[in-house]
Amino acid sequence: METKGYQCSNCNYRFTPKSAEKIPETCPYCNKPETLERVKGAQDYLDEISTEMQEREKRESV
Ligand SMILES: [Zn+2]
């Protein structure tokens, strides 16, 4: 399974929340708010591509 995580743009601390619904608002390491950015894994890129392709197909079939 792909590991998905978050990275702090302030201290570069990277972690994976236990639940995707419980993402802390502050960095657990440096405690700065609004610094967390989602780290994209390969599966995320694949999802984006397949979504794009599906939308393109929808548009062309209409
Ligand atoms: Zn931090």
Describe the structure.
With 62 residues, the protein is α+β, with helices and mostly antiparallel strands. It has one domain. Helix content is 32%, strand content 16%. The chain has one helix and three strands, in the order βββα. β1 and β2 form a beta hairpin. The longest helix is centred in the C-terminal third of the chain and has 20 residues. The protein is elongated and about 50 Å long. The termini are far apart.
In terms of per-residue confidence, which ranges show pLDDT below 50 for 5 or more consecutive residues? none
- The helical percent reads 25-40%
Give the radius of gyration: 16 Å
Strand content: 15-25%
* Head-to-tail CA distance between termini: 36 Å
Number of DSSP strand runs: 3
Strand order of the largest sheet: 2-1-3
| Count of discrete domains | 1
How many helical elements? 1
Bound molecules: zinc ion
Helix/strand order, N-terminal first: EEEH
User: Sheet with the most strands?
Assistant: 3 strands, antiparallel
Structural class from helices and strands? alpha+beta
Mean pLDDT across all residues, rounded?
85
- Gross morphology is elongated
